[in-house]
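**Folding the chain**
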Amino acid sequence: MKKTLIIMGLLSGFILQAQSVKRLKDKSIVAQEKRQVFLQWGDWRPEPKYFLGIQTNFAYGQVWGMWAPSRNRDYKKGPDIRPLGPTGKQVQRHIQIEMMENRTEKLRDHTNSWKEEENKEFLNYTNLATISDPLYLVYYKPNLNSLEAFNVNSPFYIDWGFSKQKPFNEAQQYGMIAHYREMILELKDKYKIAKNVDVSRGKRLLMYHDVFLQWRRMKQRLKDLENTFYLQDISKADLMKWKNSQIPNYTRSDAEIFQEALNQANIY
C-alpha cells in the first residue's frame, strides 16, 4: 500500500511539473525558420546594440559579429539561398517541371496529330477501305458485278451475250470464244488486284475505271461478234439465192457477188 502511494505521489509530481512548463518561442529560431522557407530573407536575430559605437550585445557578437565564425558572417552577407525563395533551387525545379510538362504536352499533341495522319493515310491506302468507298459502292461495284460474276466456262450462249445459238457455235468453231475467254480472265484478275492491292484511293479509282471501260468494250465486242456471224449467214443465204436465180451461161466473180450481198444487207 505504501509503495502504491509513493508511486502515485511521484506521478502527481511529474504531471504538475509537466503542466508548469511553458512554450518557448525564441525569436532567433523563428527568424532562422523564416530564412529556410519562403517567408523572409533577413531578420538577423539577435539584433546588434551599440553604445558610443561599441557593440554591447554580446549574443549578436557571438552569432553575427566579430566573435562569430567567418561562415556566419559569409552566410549573412551572402546571396539569398532559400530553396523556396524567388530564385531558390526548389522554385527553379518547379519552373523546370512546369516547362517539362508543357513540352511533354506539346510532344503528346504532336504525336497524336501524327497518329491521326497515319490513320488517315492507312485508310487512304488500305484495301479494307474499299467496302466503304462511296464512289465504288454507288458506281463501280454495280457496273462491275457482271464481270465478277461472269462464268467464262459457261456453254450457254445467253451467258455470253448472244441472242441465238448458231452464231455462238460458229464463234466457238473459229476459236473466238476461247480468245475472249482469256481476255475476260485477264480483266477479272485486274479487277481483283484493284480491290486487294494497297494503293492510294485515287490510284484505286483509276484502276476501277480502267477495268470498267475495258469491260464495257468487251461486252460491245461480243455483241459485234454475234452480228458479224449473223450477217455472214445472211450474206451466204443471199448469195445462194442469187446464184440460183441467175442465167446459167452468165457467171460473175466472187468479189462482185459478195459486194452485192453486202449491199443487200444494208451494211454500207
